[in-house]
Amino acid sequence: MGGAGVENTLLQIFPEKQRDFWRRAVSCQNRIQEIRLRAGRPIVIYREGRESYLDAQGQFTEQLCRAAEITGGELETLLQHICHYSLYAYEDELKQGFITVRGGHRVGVAGQAVLESDGRVRTIKNISFLNIRISHEVKGAADAVMPRMYGPGGALKSALILSPPGCGKTTLLRDLIRQISDGNSYGKGLTVGVVDERSEIAGSYCGVPQNDLGLRTDVLDGCPKSQGMFLLLRSMSPRVIAIDELGCREELDQLRQAAACGCRILATAHGETLGDLARRFGGDAGKWQDLFELIIFLRKENGGCVVTRMEEAGASVRWGSGEDA
Fold first, then answer.
1. What is the pTM (predicted TM-score) of this model?
2. Tens digits of residue pLDDT in 151-167
3. Distance between CA atoms of 43 and 244, rounded to whole angstroms?
4. Looking at residues 120-139, what average pLDDT do you find?
5. What domains can you pick out in the chain, each with its CATH number?
6. Residue-wise pLDDT tens digits, 241-281
7. C-alpha distances in Å from residue 11, one per residue of 24, 55, 97, 103, 307
8. CA atoms within 13 A on the CB side of 151
9. Do 221 and 243 form a contact (C-beta atoms < 8 A)?
10. Which of 218, 199, 195 is nearest to 210 (CA)?
11. Which residues contact 197 (CB under 8 A, 6 or more apart)?
């Protein structure tokens, strides 16, 4: 999807009568990560890792005293527009805390939780906080790691991407999926099954991925990862299973089952060291080597997200400091 298309889908998030105000800001969408809207509070925009505001004319300002506020009524109108004027129809999405819209952008919501008798969240009402996270595809983000993703004869390696939040794990994973699915100079195209629990990889809208994940990729959107991996293995026969944010032992166990079925694994996880994973899942860090042949470490450096090193079969390899990941 080209830049003009992304800009258009971002502007369409807003109701017609609000678009003149937002038009200038969304024209800079390639630099925006998040738009934070809180009823009765200044509009806060995160772009290129920094916080700024919009003034009454919709122009960027660094001065809080000039920042425009969004009213409760404007926020309610915006939410109604996002939900096509039927909040009831979006209850399943709202209880998860976010709505994915056309273009793959994700709108996080917060307000008053309505609980079931068993304590589970039924929905969220009186929503007074929105976080619009802008979907960014960076084709070529995985170029720096592709040479290490394949072994002799073009055999794909299972890989884990490890970094603190906000360092580009999902961006790198997305482009890895695309290049592996389409095929590249290191290996032929493979069928990839993506379990996209929070719609962050494919950015699916009404079941259709808004991001390019390659021609041989199948996506199960909005499904818990541990269940989704089983369903894809049974129904779609993937050669590769990909998930974002590995977070619990059940998911790890299901990945092991997929590997036992002959699948290659692509996954991300929060952390800075293998010790972080060991503390989360138990056991020592070395046990990850029997599932992941390659571990890719990311961090923020010089204002960008970079691959700092890769570990393969216990050996650390330093990578160039300027590669965009």
1. 0.82
2. 999 999 999 999 988 78
3. 29
4. 91
5. 3-133 (3.30.450), 146-318 (3.40.50.300)
6. 999 999 888 998 899 999 999 999 999 999 888 778 777 77
7. 10, 18, 22, 10, 33
8. 10
9. no
10. 199
11. 222, 223, 224, 225, 228, 243, 244
| Residue 214 token pair | 């390659």
Distance CA 310, CA 303 (A): 21
CA nearest to 245, candidates 283, 277, 282: 277
| Interior/surface letters 233-257, b for 16+ CB within 10 angstroms, e for the rest | beeeebbbbbbbbbeeeebbebbee
Neighbour-count burial of 167, counting CB atoms closer than 10 A to its CB (0-12 exposed, 13-18 middle, 19+ buried): buried
Q: How far is CA 249 from CA 143, 159, 162, 256, 287, in A?
A: 31, 17, 16, 10, 13
Mean pLDDT for 119-131 is 92
User: Which burial class, exposed, middle or buried, applies to 97 when counting CB atoms under 10 A from its CB (0-12, 13-18, 19+)?
Assistant: middle
Place of tokens 């009186």: 126
The three state secondary structure string of the chain is CCHHHHHHHHHCCCCHHHHHHHHHHHCCHHHEEEEEEECCEECEEEECCEEEEECCCCCEECCHHHCCEECHHHHHHHHHHHCCCCHHHHHHHHHHCEEECCCCCEEEEEEEEEECCCCCEEEEEEEEEEEEECCCCCCCCCCCCHHHCECHHHCECCEEEEECCCCCHHHHHHHHHHHHHHCECCECCCCEEEEECCCCCCCCECCECCCCCCCCEEEEECCCHHHHHHHHHHHCCCCEEEECCCCCHHHHHHHHHHHHCCCEEEEEEECCCHHHHHHHHCCCHHHHHHCCCEEEEEEEECCEEEEEEEEECCEEEECCCCCCC
Q: Could you count the other beta carbons within 10 Å of the beta carbon of residue 25?
A: 21
Query: How far, rounded to the nearest angstrom, does the alpha carbon of residue 296 sit from its chain's CA centroid?
Result: 17
**Alpha-carbon span 294 to 282, nearest angstrom:** 20
